[in-house]
Amino acid sequence: MKNNGTKPPNILFIMSDDHAVQAISALNRDRVQLNQTPNLDRIADEGCVFKNSFCCNSICTPSRASILTGKHSLQNGVLTLSDSLADDQVTFAGLLKEAGYTTALVGKWHLNCEPKAEDFDFWEVLPGQGCYYNPDYLVPGGTVRREGYVTDITTDTMLNWLETGRDQEKPFLACLQFKAPHRPWMPPPRHYHLYDGHTFPEPENLRDDYRNRCDVLKRNKMEIAKHMTWNTDLKVHDAGPNQSRLESFPETYGEYEWGRMTPEQLKAWNDAYDARGAFVRSHEMSDEEFESWSYQAYVTDYLRVIAAVDDNVGRALQYLKDSDLEDNTIVIYCADQGFYLGEHRWFDKRWMFEESMQMPLMIRWPGKIKAGATYEQLVQNIDYAPTLLEACGVDVPESMHGTSLLRVIEDGSSIHEDLYYHYYLHGGHGVPAHDGVRSMRYKLLHYYTQGEFNLFDLEEDPMEMSSLHDDPAYADILADMMQRYERARKQYDIPKEYGPEGTFAPM
Length: 507
Ligand code: CA
Known about the structure:
The chain is of the alpha/beta class. The protein has three domains: 10-184 and 307-416, Alkaline Phosphatase, subunit A (3-Layer(aba) Sandwich); 193-298, no CATH class; 423-491, Arylsulfatase, C-terminal domain. The chain contains twelve helices and 16 strands. The strands form four sheets. It has an eight-stranded mixed sheet, sandwiched between helices. A hairpin with a 4-residue loop joins β15 (442-447) and β16. α5 (150-165) packs parallel to α8. The longest helix has 36 residues, at 287-322. The radius of gyration is 22 Å and the shape is globular. The structure holds calcium ion.
């Protein structure tokens, strides 16, 4: 650690799972506001927001690996949900620990292995996706079950480590990683009635017909009104005349939440949610009515879960303040990727479209980051590791692809002309493997299993409703974006097998 006579900063790295940019009020002040997140907004107001922050592969496990390693998926070996992070991968946590930090990770991990002792002094992580109620946590040498609500318990455990567990002589890295708001969007009892009677605005493309883009969009399996489950997603256990619209989730499955609840918890849940089921049983809905109804039910639960995230971010910020740690702690809030809240008819992520490629990113660092600053520069999840290493005076390994965000913060530099994206989990939720590049204004997607490029002008068509790849007026732009695309594939050593000459079958 390079010590210039100043105390190295602590880091509180808060990451949630699938938190859409659309669901943080500080990031939507110039757009329709769905909800208010006063505690998250504090990070933005006392720190900064990155308005053009993106991931390189929009799904849980790969994005987490890219954040830890500062590398694109192919180079860190985590391409899909089933890949695990290999022992020889260098992480920013391990480098900070080696440099004298005490390190901890609590909550959602999802890298198909245990956190390494070389990376974390303390860890307590959810197995796989984890559960909302009475969750199990993996601990060194076993599993413990903790009664209560996952977002609250994860925060309790981290605050307890900060208070009594850590080596007080060392600076700390505390990774507080929420399962929320991942599917199946189950709120805690204190928010069961939040938004009762409220109608959320529908996104203008809730009824997207998928015209003017690659045909593969029509074969997606992530539409709210077609591909959700009655019970776990929409919280309806008997849908009466509407039952045939959707499947239900098997109640014997290990992550079936209601089977984990105590009788008291189950009663409180049923008391709150029975009215929704009763409504569905007594109203046979048309397709259009059902799409609107399921959107409202989905977004209501999603935002109730976000309210609990916001509560707990508030608790963590209050802890720093009360413990006199506020001034010398970098607080980061991000999610592993963005999410669809009805745009293109969808829930879930994966596509290179804006809602899922985007990541919320806010950083508070008193004395270093100007309060209320907004940065428009393109940044990506591979940049986080170099940023935190540089902020703590630790050398950034050359093998990392990302660039420190301090370049942006300190002198307003642009650090990426364009961003490379590659989704590899071919076929998941009906989404083909695809890649592409995004510049400040344009986006080129390559559906290489379908043999088709799509081009979007994000200024003219921010909802990405119409591809311009065969519009003669955009021929020069297409040629420029093709060059950028080829350059990025070369820069990141993407082999031909992940392209038209690869083995993925057309969908
Ligand atoms: Ca995720």
